[in-house]
Write a structure and sequence with these properties.
The structure is a single chain. About 35% of the residues lie in helices and about 30% in strands. The longest helix is centred in the N-terminal third of the chain and has 18 residues. By secondary structure, it is of the alpha+beta class. It is built from five helices and six strands. It starts with a helix and ends in an 8-residue tail after the last helix. It has one domain.
Length: about 180
């Protein structure tokens, strides 16, 4: 009987250790890029968000920065592609962890408010080569899907945002990526 009594607590301890893993909390920048901004787009509508960005009006995002305690004055760039898509790109604070976004993009289809897309250009570190790169990700419902390697960053927002737009167009309209 003593052996049975000893075995039970040991089994309980090992099963408790297995079930108590704690997941790391996402950073503030990760939460902004992957949860808050997609919700802003959902609540306000992609067309409204892109329209504000076309006017260079970033006040639509002011509450995001204030309520998360992040000090950031975003840069924005808007482009139209193929007479079909309106794309608003916004800079994010410089990422420090993998998965945080350098930029986000809100995409609205002209004449069809129901078709929208949300993309991030994320920071990634490749251990094998000990180098950094960018990853293009797209929100699909409630999850993000990696769409491949993103463009290399130059440090110039206008150049980097334009390259980001071209990468997005290769995903949403791969056969017709002519510039307007």
């Amino acid at each position: 009987m003593e052996k049975e009594a000893r075995a039970k607590p040991l089994a309980l301890e090992s099963s408790t250790a297995k079930c108590c893993k704690v997941a790391a909390m996402p950073s503030a920048l990760d939460a902004i890029a992957h949860t808050i901004l997609p919700n802003v787009m959902k609540l306000k509508g992609a067309s409204t968000v892109v329209s504000a960005m076309e006017r260079r009006d970033t006040s639509i995002f002011a509450n995001v920065w204030q309520q998360t305690g992040i000090d950031h004055a975003p840069q924005v760039l808007c482009k139209e592609r193929n007479e079909t898509w309106r794309i608003g790109v916004m800079s994010m604070p410089q990422p420090s962890e993998m998965g945080e976004a350098w930029m986000v993009a809100f995409v609205a289809k002209k004449n069809d408010a129901a078709i929208t897309h949300y993309f991030t250009l994320e920071y990634d570190y490749v251990l094998a080569t000990k180098s950094t790169r960018t990853i293009l990700t797209q929100r699909d419902g409630t999850k993000f899907t990696k769409r491949g390697e993103g463009p290399a960053l130059t440090g110039d927002f206008q150049t980097d945002a334009s390259a980001f737009v071209e990468a997005i167009m290769n995903v949403i309209s791969p056969l017709s990526t002519k510039k307007d």
